Amino acid sequence: MELTLSVVIGIGLAAACGFRVFVPFLVMSIASLAGHLTLAPGFEWIGTHYALVAFAVATVLEILAYYVPWLDNLLDTIATPVAVVAGTIVAASVVADVSPFLRWSLAVVAGGGVAGAVQAATVALRGTSSLTTGGAANPIVSTGELGGSVVTSVLAVTLPVLAVALVALVGVLIVRGLRRFRLGRRAAPNGDPAL
Fold this sequence. Notes:
The chain is an all-alpha fold. It has one domain. 78% of the residues lie in helices and 0% in strands. The protein is built from seven helices and no strands. α2 runs antiparallel to α3 (49-65), α4 packs antiparallel against α5 and α5 (100-133) packs parallel to α7. It starts with a helix and ends in an 8-residue tail after the last helix. The mean pLDDT is 90.
């Protein structure tokens, strides 16, 4: 049961990396320093005061950068591979008492895969927002992504099963919304978006 719980926590934190890369690390650092999260051997550095300061600064810079018009789209191209790596690291950092092969296999497949899927969905959502509103609605998307990352990270540490369920629900809603948008564009004459 402990392995299953740690994998679920890792998946939740990895999903949060798909929304924002540094928020989950900041939450993990706070939770570890507070004694609410046990990190796997070799990852104790995440729960140090130096790491906490570094993650806090990186989180603030990342949040601010996503509110700069068009920089947010550029950041998405950089953040996509970084989110996969971050998702792999956070997943590996909470899975303990297993062989390194199993830990990293789970981390790459589950952690990196989930982070990549969430990041891909947010990139598609921001791209749709940029095309339909000229970027005017992107701050709303950025706020939603930030909220998603914070809520998912906190839930992953406190109520991991709920975090994974929430991520699945949000994923389904994003996919449905994007499908409706694409179907609306196809149905409109001359390729103009349907109103």
